[in-house]
Amino acid sequence: DKVLAELIEPYEVRAAKLREFLEDVKPSLRYDIVPLVDPYGPSVTDPDLQCLVVSEETRRGGEAVNKKRLENGLPELALYEILLMKDPEHSQNEEEKISSSSLRQRLLGTLLRPPRQDPTLPLRPYVIGLTGGTGSGKTSIAKLLGHLGAFLIDADKLGHAVYVPGGPAYEQVVAAFGAEIVNEDGTINRQVLGAKVFGNQEQLKSLTDIVWPEIARMVKEQIREADAQG
Known about the structure:
single chain; Rossmann fold; two-stranded parallel sheet; 8 helices; 4% strand; dephospho-CoA kinase activity; COASY synthase; P-loop_NTPase; nucleotide-binding
């Protein structure tokens, strides 16, 4: 449940930073860095441990460790509580303490840059695939990229366009799934078609085998159009 878990640094990077910090503080210090694969790690099994450093917000976790140690026949650890440093630069929606969650939030959007001329890049169009679940912000990001000079291709709209009467997949879809999927005005009833394919892998594959190549072809046409427009 961490904020922006996708932006958490890899374990190897975090361990390397911790080693650098420990060696900077006291080069003669002996230590082990152990990846935690459960909520407790070696704190409830190592008989040589004597003390656990906690903060005000992790003291309850330290007490849970001691309870587990007693269950395992080990002596309790001394809980040494430290104060967490406050972040004088934190904003209203960030934590008051110096927090990796706040740092990850500040990373958002920092990689966006205006398009730049680079003679080492080939002159062909660059294609960026923008994907995500409902409500994830695809439309907002697409608009932002458009303002930066990107040519926008909406695959959802193309997916609807292949089904319209006269569209590239219309005749094939009607032939494959029957006249009962056609409304009185000649359009394809997507609800009736959906009832035929969802939950039926063979039928769904038959539909995608017809529709997806046509969408891909239309996308390639639009990429060529973008290239022509520079």
